[in-house]
């Protein structure tokens, strides 16, 4: 069983639909191990034309992906390993986004629980996203950490909503509930929690059942936009800020105060605004 | 009376507003005769500067336009006749869309009943569209037929909503009600059925009453986007799929099962998913 | 006190947030004096890096900005003074919009009362806008005056909503309430009147409190779009219409009937449609 090789994800197949469950306790931070396993499984699916649709969901009911592991840049070797031989010029976070965006299958996020920062970028990189009306939350929290989003959000958001709302999302740095996220076009739509499993599963199965060639042709006619220049600008801005002592100080401070544990993560904006 | 020459439409004039009623029983399929009459009347209006606004509506309360006539490609002569001397490089469906988009008048769709596939593209090609909250429905059904939209929808939708929603519309292939269509920006807005006639008629008359030059100048400053490249890509994708035996098999199968008759058309997604 | 030098605005500072109150009785028309004072204060803030956020609001509970002063073009000298040394090729209205758009600070409109025509363009030029659910109203009224918007709206609206809705806004020329404006993406969102002060003040203070460099970097990565060509086309169209006798006749007629006084301004669409 392939599943046995993964430690931070598990997968299920149901006909043409593969589901990747994110399972990286305690709060599903997006660290190098999770990234590596996601990259591996997505590359495997990319070569398997019996997989038509990939659904991402979380094994943790409170967190989809908390955010990128705050300590991620400590392991430069793993970071370099992840970005090499993929998309030239992209940082590791943009690389993950681009892998999702270029996946030949249709990718769908079923968002239950919280997705912040790099987790929110993961959601926005997928072809479609549906959020639980009651539990789905999404936020670009980076500004509170002294940085800007560095994994594509400046570009992904700009494709989904006008600039006035992008600025509100990034500079306001609030956690949006599913209804507001839908209203801003950040996700496809919110679905009552009692219906979202059925909704996403039905949609995924229906897409997987489409006659041969339809998905590939739609993706060819409507490819993801080329964001090369935008990624570059975003990375320049992100790199400048993340290199400042202030960012390191904030990271260190919130780690000491319990970041990356469930209770603190639920209200991390409050902690960050109190520093 | 000009009206007498048309068999699938009828027209009314009220001041500067011309209304074209689509009337092609039993379900208003968009066939070559209807296309030809639409092209003729629109070209006539294009040369008549007393017409300021053109409203499209249906004489059939259940169907605005069911979809393109499934047998349309059988009559190659009519197809060629329709596309020649119009917009080079566009297929017949894109040609109809482009005629609507380039109409000098303001074009408004009053959507009561169902508009699917080529009918949905017709709606999206118009300058504005308002749908009955209760009866207006719109869907890109093509994926279920083994093809992709080939009459501009890949482009028109991309102008109106972000790619995640375009993919949901095209690959999900569901019939949207007016409220959801409004939420996705597919139509201008939904209006209660009891108010939509008054709403559209008032708006049309008000636009027709604007001081000279305003409509023309607004259309000059805000022209429809040049979609030449997008149309080409869309047609390439559409043509590849429509040429496959699978598409022909689906078309033949649904015709045998009652497609293009009212009862079957009301729920044609169900029939198509059952094949 | 700097405030003493201004006659049509007053300013307040609260930490990193500067608020500019528009105060040009009786209905806050955007005339040359108000424009000049806005330009002066914005240029002053542009050079003051202790100001992080600029909030615009009105001292008049019924009008944010009624519209541009109808007599504005009578004072050519003041108009020329305002546009020289700013952005080459832009008319005076576009110049004001561009000053707002290029402001290094985050600009936020708190919209209570009515913003029409040039006032609506002011709202749309800001980085963000929040409107009172009960009193906030916005409209591009120009079409009823025989002209098109000439201060950027054709471009600003096109960034915020699809063309079908832009055409409805400009050609329908109706005053939108805050809920509809939100639905169309014209403003960031509507907020109940009882909460909007707290909402905007909190957001402004939070943005002003972000770690150093975040605002500047976000604005650098997500700059306002270059609208040079669009401005040119818009101005060409506007100039052609505003030079016609019809526009002058409408301006003169509504001034005689009480335009720029509160009672008439509340329902000026009705007056304009009755001419």
Based on the model shown, name its key terms.
homotrimer; 275 residues; alpha/beta; 2-enoyl-CoA Hydratase, Chain A, domain 1; six-stranded mixed beta sheet; four-stranded mixed beta sheet; 13 helices; 10 strands; globular
Provide an overview of this structure.
3 copies of one chain form a homotrimer. By secondary structure, chain A is α/β, with parallel strands linked by helices. The first copy, chain A, has 13 helices and 10 strands. In chain A, strand 2, helix 1 and strand 3 (53-58) form a beta-alpha-beta unit. The longest helix of chain A has 16 residues, at 193-208. The radius of gyration of chain A is 18 Å and the shape is globular. The mean pLDDT of chain A is 96. Chain A binds chain B through residues 106, 126-129, 159-161, 182, 185, 187-189, 203, 206-207, 209-215, 217-218, 220-222, 224-225, and chain B through 143-148, 154, 158, 161-168, 170-173, 183, 233-234, 236-238, 240-241, 244, 246-247, 250, 273. Chains A, B, C: Pfam families: ECH_1. Chains A, B, C: One of its GO terms (molecular function) is catalytic activity. Chains A, B, C: This is Enoyl-CoA hydratase. Chains A, B, C: It comes from Epilithonimonas lactis.
């Amino acid at each position: 069983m392939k599943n046995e090789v993964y430690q931070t994800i598990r997968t299920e197949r149901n006909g043409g639909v593969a589901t990747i469950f994110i399972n990286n306790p305690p709060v599903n931070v997006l660290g190098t191990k999770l990234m590596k396993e996601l990259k591996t499984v997505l590359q495997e699916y990319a070569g398997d034309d019996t997989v038509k649709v990939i659904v991402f969901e979380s094994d943790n009911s409170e967190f989809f992906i908390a955010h990128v592991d705050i300590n991620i840049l400590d392991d430069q070797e793993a970071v370099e390993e992840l970005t090499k031989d993929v998309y030239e010029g992209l940082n590791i976070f943009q690389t993950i986004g681009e892998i999702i965006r270029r996946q030949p299958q249709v990718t769908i996020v079923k968002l239950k629980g919280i997705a912040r920062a790099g987790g929110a970028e993961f959601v926005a990189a997928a072809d479609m996203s549906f959020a639980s009306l009651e539990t789905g939350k999404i936020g670009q929290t980076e500004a509170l950490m002294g940085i800007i989003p560095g994994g594509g959000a400046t570009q992904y958001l700009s494709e989904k909503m006008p600039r006035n709302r992008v600025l509100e999302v990034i500079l306001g740095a609030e956690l949006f509930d599913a209804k507001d996220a839908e209203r801003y076009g950040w996700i496809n739509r919110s679905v009552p929690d009692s219906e979202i499993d059925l909704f996403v599963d039905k949609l995924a199965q229906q897409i997987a059942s489409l006659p041969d060639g339809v998905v590939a042709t739609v993706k060819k006619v409507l490819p993801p936009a080329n964001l090369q220049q935008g990624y570059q600008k975003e990375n320049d801005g992100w790199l400048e800020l993340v290199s400042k002592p202030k960012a390191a100080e904030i990271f260190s401070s919130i780690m000491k105060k319990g970041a990356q544990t469930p209770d603190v993560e639920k209200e991390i904006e409050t902690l960050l605004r109190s520093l």
